[in-house]
Structures are given as C-alpha cells and as structure tokens.
Amino acid sequence: MRLAARFEIAFHQYLNERAEAVAEHALLTDWPRLTDFYRHMATTRRLDQKAVALQRTGQLGTYASCLGAEAVAVGAGTALQTDDVHVPYYRDQAIQLLRGVTMAEILLFWGGDERGNDYQAPGARQDLPNCIPIATQLTHAAGVAAAIQYRGQHRAVLATCGDGATSRGDFHEALNVAGVWRLPLVVLINNNQWAISVPRSAQTASETLAQKGIGAGIECVQVDGNDVVAVFLTAREALQRARDGGGATLIEALSYRLGDHTTADDASRYRSREELNEAWTREPVKRLREYLRRHGHWSAADEQQLQEDAQRQVQAAVDSYSATPIPAATAMFDHLYAHLPRALSAQYQQLAARQGGKP
After folding, report:
1. Number of other CB atoms surrounding residue 161 within 10 Å
2. Are 227 and 34 a contacting pair, CB within 8 Å?
3. Hey, is 103 helix, strand or coil?
4. What would the pLDDT profile of 287-345 be if each residue is shown by its tens digit?
5. What secondary structure letter does DSSP report for 82?
6. Residue 190 phi, psi (nearest 5)
7. What is the pLDDT of residues 223-244, one digit of tens each?
8. How far apart are CA 7 and CA 219, in angstroms?
9. Is 270 a catalytic residue?
10. How many helices (H) and strands (E) does the chain have?
C-alpha cells in the first residue's frame, strides 16, 4: 500500500480568549488600526441591538442578528479593496457598513423594502445584495470571479456563508469550478456552530469545515473567528493571492452565534444556557476592548464616547428609515424587464389607475 494523499489545515490565532497576544505581528501594536477595528465592531453591535428591538416592536421584518460575528465581518471587510466584489449572506452587516452601505439602507432591506439593496456608495455599487437562500450566492460569486478573470482584471471576490451552507451542493459546485479554473475567489465560512437548530456535530462528520475545499484543490485555512486580527490577516493574504492569479481560498472562521438564528427563532429550545454563557467568555468585541484597555489605548471615557456616537448614528438611521415614504404599488413591476410583456403591462396600467398614479 502507498499513501495517495496527505493534507493539513493550518489554524491562525493572534489574540486568544483571554485577550493575550499568542503570536507575533506588527498589527498587534498598530493601535490606530486596532482601535478602528474596535469602533466598527462596537458600532455594528449597537445597530444590531436596535434592529432586534425594532423587529420586536413591529417596526422591522424578520431580522438575522450578527451578534458574535463582528470580528469575522470586520476583519474580512477591512481586507477588501474598493474595486473587489462582496457577495454576502444575511449576517454581513459589518462588511456592508465598511463598504459604504448606510445603516438606513440596511434597515430598509430588513423592513421589506428592496430599495435597501440599491446601494448608493461607489464602493458597494458592484456588490451583490443580501442572499437569504442558503449557499446559492456562492455559485453567483464563482460566476463573478470568472468574469473578472476573463476580463483580466486585478480584482477579487469575497463570498460569505454560514456553516450550514457547506452541506449544500451549491457550495461544493462553486468550490469545484473555482479550483479547476483557479478563480480569484475567497469563500469565508462563518462557522457559528449552529445551522438554525442543527449543531455542528450533527451537521457533518468532517473534522473541519475548511478541509471541504481540499477536494476542490484550493487553499484551505481555519482561523479564530473571535480574533479580528487573525481574520483580517488571513483574509488579506487570501484576497491578494486571488488578485495576483494564485487561485481561490476557503477560510473557516470559528465563532459562535450569540443570539437566535433570526428573530423568528428561539434558541433556548435547543441549546443550553451553560453553552451560551461559556461562548460569551470568548466573544470578539470584549476581547479586543480588553486588549486595547490593558495596553493603555482604551478607557472608560473612550467607551462612553463611542457608545454615544454609535447611538446617534443608529438613531439617525432609524429616523431616516421611518421617514422613508412607502413605495408605489407599481414598483413591483420595476426592474423586471427592459420592456414589460403585454400581460404585465396591462396589469401595471390597471394598478396605476387604481392608485391614481401615472403609468
């Protein structure tokens, strides 16, 4: 017998759960950059808390919280360049904010208004909208990456998904073509340990999710998803390799979903309070804040000012969202066809007449 193949999955961590540096890198003493990471993470968490409150009071639709995933999104989002393409799933609020999507646009989307996907920021205009179906965005991302490669552009695509997506055929199809064609694609898995109510242990027997890219012939790596430094450095390297023609990468970021799957879920039905409490000891926002505080680069006064600033930003977004006029009913016909088919055109005319508008 001879050995047909052998593989290893590297794990990257720079800040452990005790907010201690466990590896060396210049970024660990880049206090302005680390402070910027923290501000983005804390501000995203404040928006997230408000969105849940709006849903609970009937002012927002079903909402998918990103509580616990802030380091995954801020680390990866900061690594993107302006002309890269982000292909999101539904917990990417922090990346979207970094791309220039406004808080009001995020609230509009979750309020059921498609105008929330009409991003106005130049950095977000080429990004795809939120994907609610599981894993279907990954084949779209592979297509975008193929177009970039075909045009000879020095750009990369970052596609994000949850651990549940790795059990879908779309996931494997996207990775397969990315490996064969050496596409400029980075797939980032937010492994938050729960695919709705299905735990990681019941979803797959694979030792890691990262190794699912081995069969596709692409680079695979695992990172501590509660360590924003590890996520940023790993994503930055993978994205640069993609831009330079080095092919695709699969990154598994280990995190934990600290909230319900969505506001339509009650996670207390299927996971223990002890497990959740233990996960809170590893959470990313507190970890980075403690590291900054311990080294004299964050204070109680800094924290109070940040929270006040974040509250003002969030409230301004809520006010803008609440004041946005309801779209005309005829808007459902817009952006479907260059020229409406006869049957739909007749329906449009009838609806426009009924609401007193002009066709």
Report:
1. 29
2. no
3. helix
4. 999 999 999 999 999 999 999 999 999 999 999 999 999 988 898 898 889 999 999 99
5. T
6. -90, 95
7. 999 999 999 999 999 999 999 9
8. 11
9. yes
10. 12, 8
Alpha-carbon gap, residue 132 to 100, rounded angstroms: 21
The catalytically annotated residue of 270, 294, 337, 354 is: 270
Active-site annotation holder among 46, 155, 261, 289: 261
Out of 86, 257, 282, 287, pick the active-site residue. Answer: 257
Nearest to 219 by CA among 3, 5, 1, 9: 9
257: annotated active-site residue: yes
DSSP 152: T
Query: What DSSP string runs through 327-355?
Result: PPGGGGGTTS-SS--HHHHHHHHHHHHHT
- Least confident range of 36-40, 45-49, 249-253, 343-347: 343-347
Domains with residue ranges and CATH for the chain = 10-327 (3.40.50.970), 328-359 (no CATH)
Chain position carrying tokens 């739909």: 344
CA–CA gap between residue 176 and residue 183 (Å, rounded): 10
Q: Tell me the average pLDDT across 200-207.
A: 94
Q: Give the H/E segment covering residue 310.
A: helix 300-323
Query: Which three-class secondary structure state does DSSP give residue 161?
Result: strand
